[in-house]
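Usage

Read records sequentially. Each one opens with the input sequence:
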Amino acid sequence: MAADTPPADDVLMAALAARDLSALAALYDRYGRLAYALAYRILGESEAAEDVVHDAYISAWRGAATYRRERGNPRGWLLSIVHHRAVDVLRRKTAFRPAPLEVAERRAADEDTALMAEKNVEQQTVRLALQALPDAQRRTIELAYFGGYTHVELAALMGVPLGTVKGRMRIGLQKMRRALEGTRA
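and closes with the structure output:
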């Protein structure tokens, strides 16, 4: 191997677990742009995406010893950290915040209150069905539907074969359908 050949990801992960700061820098140089693109795609804000990537790399530094090659490649591991951080930020931003009572009193009554309540219950039911899925199926569906990724992009992003992505989508959606049909019965 030539001296200017960059080290393999597994070598960098071992160095990172041994607290080698240059390994963190090398992983950032290698995957930082991709990590930022993922965070930006989920959040739609550059500053928030930068913060997520920063937090994800700190988390990778702290948790490098927990990385297991048999569970996936370093690229997928890093991107899953970024994904989870970005989704957490998105959830915090969109969390329900009750309006002060005075604001509610000034608002005109909505004629479709019952319809809105029904829609809210349906949305909550879908969220619960999604959360009940195994992590890999849930992440695949979230990235496809909320992140706008194609099956091919998901396969590359998650570091798995295209058939695995399609299978996760199909099985996950079938499980959600059964769960939703069970609530309507």
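Summary fields computed downstream for this record:
- The chain has two domains: 7-95, 113-185.
- The longest helix spans residues 21-43.
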